[in-house]
């Protein structure tokens, strides 16, 4: 199996060398990793990529809530590993989906108090999104884009001089996602969100798994048509396995083809400033797997594509 995988990696790398990839954009676009595992930063394969930024999602009240002490300890361990590796964090606040209160939506005052405590605890952190996937249709915040916009407003007001991105959205432009029994689409949700913003964002964050898998750019083009400034694909990648969505599971080689499409977007859409891959290593027991590294530790073809792309620019 490992020999067969090695042959796949070699053939894909050769294809890139002959022009299948987009190495010209490698120097212009920052590549990051979105992964919560601190061991990522000591993996020689990670170090070979030369990645200098990583994303972590923390509960909005991780510093102030006793129920989140375990999450806080885990984050501190991740942060130490990232800083030791010379990696600058991008922090996204959001719900704690492992907590019974995962669907709780804080008032702006509650959010402000808890996030201010986080900023005081970690003054070295200066790059943020205010809420991870505020348009996630399975959570109640999705019904209130104006409130999500006010989280952004509050964070900008508290963290002067920080890089604070707006959005962090995932909704597709077509599909079957619903909010209050109505079809939920990116355009209308984003329009209501933008109306509530009081500050100019440093950029816009998008999770475009759906369009990477379907090989279209409708999410990206919708976001571009409604906003200005840099776009960070701060959670993306080729998905092998995902619990509930319309696409079937696929092979590691097919996910690498998705990776190639993702990287090619940097030549077509020059507002793309960063791409954060989720995730570094897949889990055999999880419903989701988009790892550049397989659960058994084997290097996947998508990793080889990314490594070549980064070093060819």
Question: How are the SSEs ordered, and which strands pair?
Answer:
Blueprint: H1 2-20, E1 30-34, H2 44-49, E2 53-59, H3 69-84, E3 88-94, H4 108-121, E4 127-129, H5 145-158, E5 163-169, E6 178-179, E7 182-183, H6 186-195, E8 204-206, H7 209-214, H8 218-226, E9 231-236, H9 252-268, E10 272-277, H10 301-312
Parallel strand pairs: 1-2, 1-10, 2-3, 3-4, 4-5, 5-8, 8-9, 9-10
Antiparallel strand pairs: 6-7
Q: Could you please describe the fold and organization of this structure?
A:
- This protein is α/β, with parallel strands linked by helices and 313 residues long.
- The protein has a single domain (2-12, 25-312), classed as Glycosidases (TIM Barrel, Alpha-Beta Barrel), CATH 3.20.20.
- The protein contains 10 helices and 10 strands.
- It has helices at 2-20, 44-49, 69-84, 108-121, 145-158, 186-195, 209-214, 218-226, 252-268, 301-312; strands at residues 30-34, 53-59, 88-94, 127-129, 163-169, 178-179, 182-183, 204-206, 231-236, 272-277.
- The protein has an 8-stranded parallel barrel, surrounded by 4 helices. Strands 6-7 form a two-stranded antiparallel sheet.
- α5 (145-158) links the parallel β4 (127-129) and β5.
- α4 (108-121) packs parallel to α5 (145-158) and α5 packs across α6.
- The longest helix has 19 residues, at 2-20.
- Mean pLDDT is 89; it is low at 1-26.
């Amino acid at each position: 199996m490992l020999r067969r995988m090695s042959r796949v990696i070699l053939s894909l790398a050769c294809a890139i060398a002959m022009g299948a990839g987009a190495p010209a954009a490698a120097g212009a676009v920052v590549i990051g990793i979105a992964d919560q595992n601190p061991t990522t930063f000591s993996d020689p394969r990670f170090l070979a990529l030369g990645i200098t930024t990583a994303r972590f999602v923390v509960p909005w009240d991780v510093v102030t809530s006793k129920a989140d002490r375990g999450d806080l300890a885990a984050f501190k361990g991740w942060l130490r590993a990232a800083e030791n590796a010379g990696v600058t964090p991008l922090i996204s606040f959001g719900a704690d989906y492992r907590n019974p209160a995962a669907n709780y939506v804080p008032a702006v005052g509650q959010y402000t108090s808890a996030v201010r405590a986080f900023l005081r605890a970690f003054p070295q952190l200066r790059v943020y999104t205010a809420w991870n996937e505020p348009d996630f249709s399975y959570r109640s915040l999705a019904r209130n884009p104006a409130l999500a916009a006010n989280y952004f407003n509050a964070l900008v007001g508290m963290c002067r001089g920080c890089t604070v991105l707006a959005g962090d959205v995932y909704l597709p432009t077509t599909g079957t996602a619903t909010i209050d029994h109505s079809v939920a689409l990116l355009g209308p949700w984003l329009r209501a969100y933008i109306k509530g913003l009081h500050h100019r964002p440093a950029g816009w964050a998008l999770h475009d798994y759906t369009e990477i898998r379907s090989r279209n750019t409708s999410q990206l083009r919708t976001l571009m048509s409604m906003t200005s400034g840099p776009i960070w694909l701060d959670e993306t990648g080729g998905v092998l396995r995902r619990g509930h969505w319309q696409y079937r599971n696929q092979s590691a080689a097919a996910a690498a083809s998705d990776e190639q499409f993702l990287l090619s977007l940097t030549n077509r859409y020059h507002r793309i400033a960063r791409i954060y891959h989720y995730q570094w290593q897949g889990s055999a027991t999880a419903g989701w797997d988009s790892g550049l590294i397989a659960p058994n530790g084997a290097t996947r073809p998508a990793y080889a594509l990314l490594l070549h792309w980064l070093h060819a620019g």
